[in-house]
Amino acid sequence: MELENLKFESLENATPRELADAIVKILDARKARDIRLLKFKEGSDLTDYFVLATGTATTQIKGYAGEIEYRLGEAGVKPLHMDGYETGTWIAMDYAHVIVHIFHKNERDFYKLEKLWNDAEEIPLTLMD
Q: Is 40 contained in some domain?
């Protein structure tokens, strides 16, 4: 889906999965790389979902985070907290039941969150080419 055609109805009462899917669509429309959706076990103290994505430059990474914040804000959802925007090498956005991690490739390779949280289930995604 093209970014200019990407519109969301209100997400204020969205399920965690619906919110995660909206974030994945935004990142995909912005051409983020290596997008992954991890689902944590029921009753996890951490969160329900992680959305992971990679960018190649700090400006691009900040752009992804800004687009998520803008699009979800239009749909009535604001992040509880955002970290890392100043440096733009690893931005974490906390939407309570969904946490978004947008990395520079070097940070993604170093921290390997997919391996750290290997007990989380990776949800298959259908993304644009």
A: yes
Q: What is the CATH number of the domain that holds 63?
A: 3.30.460.10
Half-sphere exposure of 35 (CA within 13 A, CB side): 22
| Alpha-carbon gap, residue 14 to 111, rounded angstroms | 30
pLDDT by residue (tens digit) across 32-75? 999 999 999 876 777 999 999 999 999 999 999 999 999 999 99
Beta strands 49-55 and 98-104, pairing class? parallel
pTM > 0.85: yes
Cβ-in-10-Å burial (0-12, 13-18, 19+) of 50 comes to: buried
